[in-house]
Specification:
about 325 residues, alpha+beta, 6-stranded antiparallel beta sheet, about 40% helix, elongated
Length: about 325
């Protein structure tokens, strides 16, 4: 009996593993979570997680298909980075990207700081001589972008809400980081600085940022565009324009800034909704920083007191010379 117990336990574990793999395969073929083939999906995934933790690495390719398993991904990467990344390296490029996003904590809400630090240290310690080094750098880039608020202080923790882990701070920081933008709050140290940055984030469209910086009597303009859908991930930087505005355009811009009366605008007008598009405008002038956030700013513009804001935004977007302005589901926003 003493010898047969471990054998029974082993065979039982193998049987559970195989049953879980079979049911998961049937569920994936059906590709319908509400189907009868998927009724035990969560339980089966948990079974494979336990099996993997007990040393059976054969189940990892199956688990990598479930990119919401952020805790499991992080735990497995930290425990055995070479084995985990080697398994990921055999996936298609889109699947590798999806796993990298899972490691990063998903598009939102990202990771807590201790887990972020642990995963980041693990990825940074992969030597460049390792065959998985390129994949480790890809995962590191995704990790840092999705958790940019830990690396760059774009906004104060209470910029949009009292919650220090406010989802908007995370989201907007991620997009600005992917856009290659710097924090504007540091410009308050220069009393002569006059800088404004408009960022438009459509749920189903590219993130766009247009920044203007006064240089003497004229303004310089810098525009950036990402190729992702802002509601689902920033994507990569695909367009950059840097333009010196002429005297007439700079004068027009000064008038638009005066009409905007930016520093008297409340951070939020409390108009919110699902999806749509977010319009974020930051500004620094005379040593002061301010930020406002408007959901679907082109809707009910006059009623919400956004006429001057839209005029200012339209000017910036037009002068940016980007190949395309902000769109959502293919529809132009301006």
């Amino acid at each position: 009996m003493a010898l047969s117990a471990p054998l029974y336990a082993d065979s039982s574990a193998i049987a559970k593993r195989d049953a879980a793999l079979k049911e998961i395969a049937a569920c994936l073929r059906r590709n319908e979570v509400s189907s009868k083939e998927c009724k035990n999906l969560n339980k089966n995934v948990e079974t494979l997680e336990d099996v993997y933790r007990q040393g059976d690495t054969t189940v990892l390719p199956t688990l990598l298909q479930f990119t919401y398993l952020t805790d499991f991904f992080g735990e497995s990467l930290i425990a055995d980075p070479d084995a985990f990344l080697n398994a990921v390296s055999h996936l298609s490029q889109p699947a590798q990207h999806a796993v990298a996003t899972g490691i990063a904590g998903g598009v939102l809400p990202g990771l807590e700081r201790p887990r972020f630090d642990a995963i980041r240290a693990t990825l940074m310690n992969i030597p460049n001589s390792s065959p998985v080094y390129p994949l480790a750098r890809k995962c590191l880039d995704r990790l840092e972008t999705e958790n940019a608020l830990f690396l760059v202080d774009y906004f104060s923790p209470q910029a949009f809400a009292q919650d220090p882990h406010d989802i908007l701070v995370r989201w907007y920081s991620t997009e600005l980081y992917a856009l290659g933008e710097k924090p504007l709050r540091g410009d308050t140290k220069n009393p002569d600085a006059q800088v404004y940055r408009l960022m438009v984030l459509p749920t189903w469209g590219n993130a766009i940022a247009v920044r203007i910086d006064r240089q003497g009597q004229r303004y310089g303009l810098a525009a950036r565009r990402l190729d992702g859908e802002a509601g689902y991930g920033p994507g990569k930087l695909v367009e950059m324009k840097d333009i010196d505005l002429n005297a007439d355009d700079s004068k027009t811009l000064e008038t638009l800034i005066q009409d905007l009366d930016f520093f008297k605008l409340p951070t939020s007008d409390h108009v919110v909704g699902f999806d749509g598009d977010e319009w974020i405008l930051e500004g620094v002038s005379q040593g002061q920083y301010h930020v406002i956030d408007r959901w679907c700013a082109t809707s009910n513009t006059r009623k919400r007191g956004l006429t001057a804001f839209i005029a200012f935004s339209k000017f910036l977007l037009h002068k940016s010379a980007l190949s395309q302005g902000p769109t959502n589901k293919g529809h132009k926003l301006l």
